[in-house]
Amino acid sequence: MDDDVSAASDPLLDPLDDEQRIVAEALLGPVCVLAGAGTGKTRAITHRIAYGVASGAYDPARIMALTFTTRAAAELRARLAQLGARGVHARTFHAAALAQLNHFWPLVVGGSAPRVLEFKGRLLGEASERLRLRTDVPTLRDVAAEIEWRKVSILGMDEYERRLASRGAPGNLTVDQVLALIAAYEQLKDERRMLDFEDVLLVTAGMIETEPSVALHVRETYRYFVVDEYQDVSPAQQQLLDLWLGGRREVCVVGDASQTIYTFAGATPDYLLGFERRYEGATVVRLERNYRSTAAIVGVANRLMRGRAGALQLQAAGAGSAGEGQAPVAPTGVDPKRADAASATPDDQPTIVEYSDELAEARGVAERIRERTESGVPPESIAVLMRVNSQSAILEQALDEVGVSSRVRGAIRFFDRPEVREAVHALRAAALTISGEPLFKSVSDVLRSLGWTVQAPDGPGAVRARWESLNAIARLVDDAPADTTFRAFADDLRARAEAQHEPTVSAVTLATLHSAKGLEWDEVFIIGLTEGMLPIAYAKGFEAIDEERRLLYVGITRARRRLTLSWSRSGGGHRGEREPSRFLQELGTRTRDASRAVGAGGVHRRA
Q: How confident is the model over 134-160, as pLDDT tens digits?
């Protein structure tokens, strides 16, 4: 390690709290970071990598930072670049495996690698026709999910057949029909020389395992591994990671067992919780200071997860704590919007609200959001979270009625919108011929030609939605460095589009709890907290119910300042009354008589 770099005063370490600093200084050997929601895990691992590069401990080209979404990988690259650690390979497991597959296939097998199948549905439909099975689209989607689960779980067909009997066959299919459909799908895939995404992991692992030259090359290329969201790793991903490491111990993993919400897709927290057993003498660090949320919100999250395996006891940094009497001070450099979260007023205490029916719930939430936006709260700082996508329609309508713009996360990605594709194309074309003008003038002139105006159009609707998209691009100019050229801006926009690194759009976000993971807002509403919706009706048994609990935990910990949980006694077209979610009953019972209760006195009821 370079003696010129002093850990005691290094600027890469100064912004970190004590525990984050331990992570950053643990450069060699196995490291396990148990990081609760909002505790600065990304800050810790990016500063660790940057410090390792700056001190000479790491060659950036030999580091592989792995995560689970292209958005998260893009964020890692951007943060590392800001910290001076350029050249680090930050990728998803699939992207890293695919790059290796394409590189080694011509050398090992010959010819170009097979084409990757993006969607299984069409091929499964053809397989169904070949077998003369009557299947609908939802059933084919469920069969696709079964294929994915089997492969990432590394199950042979015999073992899968035994498991399928207990899992239940999708739709109206029998176990034998599902097995025949999967076999026909695999045959079609082979005939057309294609691989699906799960095959990419398995085939790459197979090459490394059976070809010594491939293993040697991979292990010479990558020496240091960092794995984010390690609680979401599947057996197939863990197998690949083990093969990349080849028995070495230079691996740092980061995760939170309380945020394991993808077990249906093969994810398991067992590798995270068993890390110390697998790597004797590993450095284990717990990050439990939450810099995101108020003490009251942190308290709700802790109560929900108390006693669960691997659950961390979060402490709210700043004024107040999560009930433990501790008030850690935010370290230098912590985002102020997080560090001062505990300064929220008593009126901002989390509340549980009961409504008569779903329409009343939607309108009540929409009215509250209208009041917030009219008081000056930016709509993009508010989110409404729900268990399933179908719940969003009534919210969209209610928000539209009160004149508040909204966007459904996952409905259509920002860079896939027609107006955005048109704007990116126009800006790139203009950047080839225009130079020397102020950046804002160049960008705004192009956007004006597409219908953008400085002033927003009145009301919500399609016209307003188009304007919001173009305005989000215009606002990127404000974030660009002062010396950014028009050409560099257009190139950066294209890179954003390729990475699906979306800019902020001025609209309330509507999202499922699954799609909200990794995001945060000042104010969060979680709706539909009834038995049968959360936990969902098909969640049977302790493990399934506990995953629903973790899903609610993820939703709660997305909120910085304000949190509202709501449920309705009935839904449109449904007879009989619903019951509030058992999770709400736990929170209400635990806090009904406490002055710092959820809702300050139990469940608030509204007609």
A: 888 878 988 998 999 999 999 999 999
Our measurement of the distance from residue 571's CA atom to the centroid of its chain's CA atoms, rounded to an integer in Å, reads: 30
Q: Residue 15 phi/psi, 5° resolution?
A: -75, -5
Would you say 434 and 443 are in contact if contact means Cβ atoms under 8 Å apart? Answer: no
Identify the bridge partners of residue 35 per DSSP, sorted by sequence position: 287
φ, ψ of residue 484 in degrees (nearest 5): -70, 130
What is the spatial distance between Cα 65 and Cα 199, in angstroms, rounded to a whole number? 21
Residues 6+ apart with CB under 8 A from 328: 17, 289, 315, 317, 318, 321
Q: Is the pLDDT of residue 86 over 70?
A: yes
Asked if 286 contacts 258 with a C-beta cutoff of 8 angstroms, the reply is no
Residues 6+ apart with CB under 8 A from 75: 42, 501
Give the predicted TM-score (pTM) of the model. Answer: 0.78
- The pLDDT of 405-434, averaged and rounded, is 82
Q: Exposed, middle or buried: residue 559 (CB in 10 Å: 0-12, 13-18, 19+)? A: buried
The burial of 442, by beta-carbon neighbours within 10 Å (0-12 exposed, 13-18 middle, 19 or more buried), is given as buried
- Closest Cα to residue 267, out of 236, 290, 234? 234
Q: Determine the Cα–Cα distance for residues 166 and 285; give it in Å rounded to an integer.
A: 38
